[in-house]
Amino acid sequence: MKVHYRTLFLSDIHLGSTGSHAKQASRLLKHVRCDTLYLVGDIVDMWRLKRKWHWPKSHNEVVRRVLKLAERGTKVVFIPGNHDNGARQFDGMEFGKVQLKLRDIHTTADGRKLLVTHGDQYDLVVKHHPVLSAFGGLAYEWLLRFNRLYNFGRASMGYKYWSLSKYLKLKVKHACTFISRFEETLIAEAKREGTDGVVCGHIHKAEQTTVDGIEYWNCGDWVESCTLVVEHHDGQMEVLDGLTLLDEIARAKRAHNVAEAQARTARTGRDNDPADDDHDILDADDSLNGEPVEALVGELAGRGV
Prior knowledge:
By secondary structure, this protein is of the alpha/beta class. The chain has helices at 22-31, 46-51, 57-71, 124-128, 130-156, 164-171, 173-193, 242-268, 293-300, and strands spanning 3-10, 32-39, 75-78, 94-95, 98-100, 104-107, 113-116, 197-200, 207-211, 214-218, 227-231, 237-241.
């Protein structure tokens, strides 16, 4: 069961960090197809990997699924962010049919031009105060660890995932002011570029707004909120909740399996159990000829594996 979009924009998956919802991101890439896939920065958390190596199988699967999409004809563009800035030295190169660019101009189906950039270049703290930025990153990581424990407790009581870290962050006045200024700065940059809008990531806050005719789209993240931006085949853009999308796909798949089982029963006269094969492991043909994904990530992160 596949859902097809013209363009998919994903950012801030932070593979290599313990807070990454890599398993859910892998499931999304398994069940969604697109003509173009933009990876809008901080896909791999090289900052975290330099401090301590953390690369479970689920993180490997995300990279392998991206490479498999590229192999099957999807145009994949990777725009590094501040956490995977080690890849910026390869601007203009191609790896496994994945194009690496510092920024790009995307043209929608209805002719609008959108600047695609991670956005950290417009964050004054990241740009001018790297030590403060690194300290903030460590504090954020501890908050995410507490968030996982909190959601483990919620899950044990039958409640759905809810981002406590996101809630606390958006309750801080200075954080809200920063987000507002970040949006204003990116919209101003889109104006300077002569584009109709901008697609970015970086601040882990999915958003769509239009100011003076300039569209602002933020992909959000796959650490707190599991969100993405999609372009439909008519050029319409939309911010989606990734977990809700996965639930909808799973329900559609179960309904499809039930219908198929009923059809088989009608043909054969035997009752069939419609097993749900919506699992998280790779498809049998996803071996990618032994592509040394983990070694490549380790090299980009500036350490051996």
